[in-house]
Amino acid sequence: MRxxxxxxxxxxxxxxxxxxxxxxxxxxxxxxxxxxxxxxDRHMYQPGLLYVAFGQMMPDALYRDQASLLEPSIEFHVDxxxxxxxxxxxxxxxxxRVFGYDVxxxxxxxxxxxxxxxxxxxxxxxxxxxxxxxxMYKALRNFQGGRIALVVGVPHKCPIAPVEATFxxxxxxxxxxxxxxxxxxxxYPINRIHSIENVAKWAKPExxxxxVAYETLFNLKEVDVANRIIxxxxxxxxxxxxxxxxxxHRGMAVIEExxxxxxxxxxxxxxxxxxxxxxxxxxxxxxxxxxxSKTGSAAHFEAEVVAxxxxxxxxxxxxxxxxxxxxxxFIEAGHDxxxxxxxxxxxxxxxxxxxxxxxxxxxxYNQLYWSSVRGLL
Amino acid sequence: MSSQTNLSDGPAGxxxxxxxxxxxxxxxxxxTLVTAARDAMSDDIVTRMSSAVNEGLxxxxxxxxxxxxxxxxxxxxxxxCQSLLEALADALTATSRELVSDPTGSGAxxxxxxxxxxxxxxxxxxxVCVLGGHLSRxxxxxxxxxxxxxxxxxxx
Lengths: 377, 156
Known about the structure:
The structure holds 2 protein chains of 2 kinds.
Chain A: E1 2-6, H1 10-22, H2 24-28, E2 33-38, E3 42-44, H3 48-53, E4 63-65, H4 66-69, E5 75-78, E6 81-85, E7 90-93, E8 98-100, E9 103-106, E10 110-112, H5 120-123, H6 130-142, E11 146-152, H7 161-175, E12 182-187, H8 197-209, E13 213-215, E14 220-224, E15 229-232, E16 237-239, E17 242-246, E18 249-251, H9 253-257, E19 274-275, E20 278-283, H10 296-316, E21 327-334, E22 337-343, H11 356-373
Parallel strand pairs in A: 1-2, 1-9, 2-5, 9-20, 11-12, 11-17, 12-13
Antiparallel strand pairs in A: 3-4, 6-7, 7-8, 10-18, 14-15, 15-16, 19-20, 21-22
Helix pairs in contact in A: 1-10
Chain B: H1 11-18, H2 21-40, H3 43-64, H4 67-77, H5 79-101, H6 109-117, H7 119-147
């Protein structure tokens, strides 16, 4: 059986390593082949970008060589897929090579699209890329006081990030001794301060305590870069001195170009994680259109289900597990404290009070991530 | 009968009955220790410790899932290998010191002849030759198993 994994991010790497462990005998005997196609030879720990933006982590700590994270039995190529030929069970890559498969896993991730809002690219800082996070840190470091606006587009990767960034802003300027000279205003596109209701309930009193202003139902329409004003679809506006944005995301361009799903999100079975209409094509991580957070943890739990099912199909001909929508998010709450949100399709998160131990758990996980993607944790 | 509640009759009293004063003191000490450790920690310490744990886990995983390395470790654990390992470690130390003190060596052909006259060098050459002989025979045997029709067919 030929198993092909497209995408070397969190989901793709975990599913490939997990399969290599479960099917080690079959791989040694040549009954199964496991191939990964990725766009990059490096793997980035994306949640670390927020730390880079606040000077708490250096960019080089976010990377490992992708090949070093993979089991030796995985055939790895840096050769991104350009064309999916699902009916022929083939893909064509950027170097014009064709790879056939019996089982395909699509884990191509997502991308931010700030260019869809006029003025957002040139007018705002964002921490969703390495260069952006470094630039944002420098802007924050040079900021001597004034009005900071944080705007959020949806959907976006890591739904907790807007709240964490706000807490971090408060801490950053407090540590510099100029918090009283900085006005922080948080703008969110729906009618509460977070899409997850219990996170909104938990964060609101925290914002009040930190004297963070907020405006809900603020869907960014444009950034007037020259006059430093943001305007919403709801006809409100705010003048800022520094604009921080979390731009809306889409699935990867290759998914849209191959018409596999609207806005790059592939229609996916919520329990089996198979692509609609294709039982031998699995989708995981940000690439799905599932109503779960676009986080590494969702990709992790989905990858475990997909790997176990593919392995069981190889061994007994049937899948054995279903994904329950599990997501686990750390939430850095400022003051060196953190909490977490765990939820699934059936149960909303029940946030506990933040404490230091959870903050250290998160700091530890920043390191243990590398064991996690190798399939150890 | 008094209407006042006596605390020692309630749950606190029952705790006192079941937990001695010394036990409570130990619990208090433990709580103080945990608080002290917590106060002494920093993000940097947690990061370094976690990084070490992460690398340790990966190393452990690689070693334990590698049959060749496990076999080597088992062999090296045998008591007769200990003196060899200690000698190897000492030899590495002495060699590195010698190379530092005399980086150019003392002559090409003549120096080599002097080295060969050294009984220690001759013993080491014998050790290498014996090791090479065993390695060759084991490799030959392993190759036969892997290609024979009745063998497991597993790659070496």
